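Write out structure tokens for Alpha-galactosidase.
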Amino acid sequence: MLAGGVAGLAAAGAVRAGAAPVEAGKAVLAPRPPMGWNSWNSFATTITEAQARETAGIMAEKLLPFGYDIFTVDIQWYEPEASSYTYNAKPKPAMDGYGRMIPAPNRFPSSAGGKGFTQLAKDVRALGMKFGIHVMRGIPRAAVEQNLPILGTKYRAADIADRKSICSWNPDMYGVDMTRPGAQAYYDSIFRLYADWGVDFVKMDDMSRPYDAHAAEIEAAHKAIVATGRPIILSLSPGETPVMRGDHVRKYAQMWRISDDFWDDWAMLEAQFTRLENWTPYRGPGSWPDADMLPLGRLALGERDTRFTPDEQRTLMTLWAIARSPLIMGGDLRHLDAATLALLTNKEVIAVNQASYDNQPHYIEDGGRIWSAKAEGSADRYVALFNVSDKPREVWIRLRDLGLNGPVAVHDLWAGRALGQQAERIAMTLPPHGAGLYRLSAA
């Protein structure tokens, strides 16, 4: 299976310049960019257990053989009345007696009787995958209104809530004032619950913006995960995470969003080039700047297919691959078409994302974007060429600018075929908003 092969390469490779520091004797969480599926782009707040199980089965059959192994239930699985991309102004979330969100039993029947996500997580893992959930920063407002106790302490929800720290777009939570007694105990209690359920991945929202205001809670979540003893990957959302906080964020999380929610809009895609360029110093094992999910295929509660053209879809996958952004599919797998499946499962393109290093941009000319990387276990180079203009154009780079001397053999990864030799430069005429991805070997 490709997943094991590329994972082994990435894990075995030395930590390169720009990678997060690794403490001696400690295994690296997320040694390669995480790959998987997330429910937000296709189900919004509404996914049910039946839909999750159906989707997980499709994912295990069609995507897991190529390395996509993290299955994530996104926001408001605890909201019995969730119905769209709009949040209820006065939610009535499912909670336990300690103010911890639990799956709404009307949507996730296997959670009844206090079982939480235990059975669903077990069944997802039985398919060979990992189980992830989305959570919001803080403590439920409903828990504060009821002033529920904090597990294992004499404190209550109102003692730790910061009622002035609220999310601008979601009404579920208050922030937690980490200077107050009981605050860390609350975070410890929720992550202990997730660990007991068998959760492997937590996407934690309302964290990265404004960053400094939430830094103490980022640290608290990390500390709580460590205390569980379970290797849970922490993904922070949404961005734009400030690049100046790169050293802090890579210390406490394995991936973090570099932008607000990314959707199928060319202007949004073009903007991700600069963001990914800026995050280059912080990319490496256990440390992944996240350009967000792949809005491909059927989206938005089944209302439409992606607005990206075929050329823009290839540009999206090429950029995420060469910049080593996590590859998290967002489209509805129940309607996965052949073209989208082929885009997601090109083994040579996935290998660029999973087993390359020294990934970096090159600045040659306006209208074109160029990235290169080195292939693990080889002297070969990867080169990605992008035409971000609205007309066909030639995009090129000299071999000497890649540190290469002499002729090279060029292999087109998307087409899966050899293109012959080049002696001095790589130059391709690309369609508007188009991209090419190539492997260069000594001729």
